[in-house]
Amino acid sequence: MNTTVQVRQRGALTLPNELRKRYNIQPGDTFHLLDVDGVFILTPLAPIVPELAREIERARIEAGLSVEEMLAGLREQREKYSAENYPNPDA
């Protein structure tokens, strides 16, 4: 498809309805804009949060941990990391 879009106030662009329908673009979808020497490439951002959540859940189950155990371990690691990397000068 070859089309023209216009930059409106505050930099807004309106994607043609045909493209929104074809690619199921919904209000609130997020895109990455890449500038290649004045050629703009617009690509949708893949929603990584659900994929990451599935991976964490898989790892938790494989390790045989409850959610509470996993969170306790994460808190412990965070405290250890903070103590090692940000020592308290008043201690």
Report low-confidence residues grouped into runs of 5 or more: none
Distance between the termini: 65 Å
> Given the helix and strand composition, which structural class is it?
alpha+beta
Quaternary structure: single chain
Read across the widest sheet, the strand sequence of neighbours is: 1-2
Q: Count the helices. How many?
A: 3
Shape: elongated
- Percent helix among the residues? 40-55%
- Order of H and E elements: HEEHH
Main sheet?
Answer: 2 strands, antiparallel
For this entry, give a set of tags:
91 residues; 3 helices; two-stranded antiparallel ribbon; single chain; alpha+beta
Describe the structure.
- By secondary structure, the protein is an alpha+beta fold.
- Helices cover 45% and strands 13% of the residues.
- It has three helices and two strands, in the order H-E-E-H-H.
- The chain has helices at residues 17-22, 48-63, 67-85, and strands spanning 31-36, 39-44.
- Strand 1 and strand 2 form a beta hairpin.
- It is elongated and about 60 Å long.
